[in-house]
Amino acid sequence: MKNFPSLKGKKIVVTGGAGFIGSNLCEFLISQQAQVRCLDNFATGHRHNIEHLLKDDLFELLEGDIRDLQTCQQACEGVDFVLHQAALGSVPRSIADPITTNAVNVGGFLNMLVAARDQQVKRLVYAASSSTYGDSTALPKVEENIGQPLSPYAITKYVDELYAQNFKLTYNLDTVGLRYFNVFGRKQDPQGAYAAVIPKFVQQFMKHESPQINGDGTYSRDFTYIDNVIQMNMRALTTENTEALNQVYNTAVGDRTTILSMAKDLRSFLAEKDSKIAQVEILHGPNRQGDVPHSLASIEKAQHYMGYVPTHRFQEGLKEAVDWYWEHL
Ligand SMILES: NC(=O)c1ccc[n+]([C@@H]2O[C@H](COP(=O)([O-])OP(=O)(O)OC[C@H]3O[C@@H](n4cnc5c(N)ncnc54)[C@H](O)[C@@H]3O)[C@@H](O)[C@H]2O)c1
User: Where does the record locate the signal sequence feature (predicted)?
Assistant: First the structure.
């Protein structure tokens, strides 16, 4: 990981800190000797993701819900920065239950903005999403050019961006939005109906079960390893370039991999550990509603304003992720 200005002694709230991305952020911040307050209601996060941090004096767990303004105010008390990760992810989940997704992703986000404003937090960095590009077919995706959202989830993430811009205008709160592109890596949950594709497939291959691709596998994604996401969060938190603030940034690698080739790479990396996995067939099902066919980010803006350079391209990240799952599943 690259060096950043020291965060030692800084107080930072990580919402969704028991989730995949949030717990990786908590862990990294603690390694930098920052003081971390993790706010999570364990809706989709897990205690085991943060268990090892609980005994650290620098770490505090605040179990609570971002839909409750008082909880958000309490979380932001005496804090320098917020890394806002809490949300209900997953396009299909939002199609099944748009009301809860909206309440958490928009209502909860607004509560955190209000709390950050009231408690005079210096900067709030938040998880935005590549789903905001919606039906725009232009590739690569550049931040200023978005289409119509294809799911309730995508709407919530776009509304968050609008609220963040407005809080600068209206209350002078500094924010940075990070449009994550298909993040993967250690601690991502393979379980449940809304599991992300990489951990889900890893688990199936490890059990010698055939994973099923939605569609013919030609859809493509800019799969982004967790360490690149941590780097962007740290850059967004520490940049002293004021022009870099109150903007949104693609958080990606700038490469595109089809779902089928991702599945084949996974199978061959796992087959190095268990040769029987090489024989596991990859199946195909129907396309899934709300999915964007292709996703590829331009990372020029992040490079220009933040000095971001991804440390892991797709296959490097995938190898590390596979090693981690092999040890931990
Ligand atoms: N993983 C990706 O590929 C990806 C892509 C784009 C955007 N994002 C965004 O990044 C963020 C983190 O995603 P993740 O992949 O780590 O998901 P995750 O589900 O592992 O983490 C989300 C965390 O938020 C917590 N949470 C949910 N509702 C809450 C509530 N009401 N109050 C308090 N905590 C709550 C969950 O318990 C969980 O720990 C989310 O905002 C997500 O929308 C993720």
Answer: none
